[in-house]
Automatic annotation (TrEMBL):
Protein name per Swiss-Prot or TrEMBL: Uncharacterized protein
Coiled coil stretches, renumbered: 1-67
UniProt keyword terms in alphabetical order: Coiled coil
Amino acid sequence: MEDIVKLLEQMREDIKDIKSKVTNNCEEVKSMREEIISMQENWNKERKELKNELYETKEEVESLKREKIRNNLVITGITVETEDMNQINNEIGKILENEMNIKVIPRKAFKIKENIWKLEMNTWEEKMLVLKEKGKNRLEKTTESDIRIEAKN
């Protein structure tokens, strides 16, 4: 009988320990939950900020693309014999000056096909100047000078 009483006492102590451990574990779990909730809130806030930043960056890139495209011209009938970009730009500038009496040098010139060039003008105003002069002059078509200029947006 005495053994049974000792055994019961031992079981009571074990149960108290287990209860204490369960209580501690519950508190730890509660603390961890709060930490996780806090981290989730921070992540959501950061995610929202990054989304806004990405959206603004995309809008800025699109705006720059539109501005860049807005300044483009396509010119046909020009032959340039060099590969150096600066010389190409200068040659096209000289041709425009000789044919149309305007002094503009494109920012960049890209060869699309034989005798077809895409010109990226420095500003919208330069592009409009070329187009206005094109309209005024209506270049006479000859076998040597068959230059056409188109506005490409």
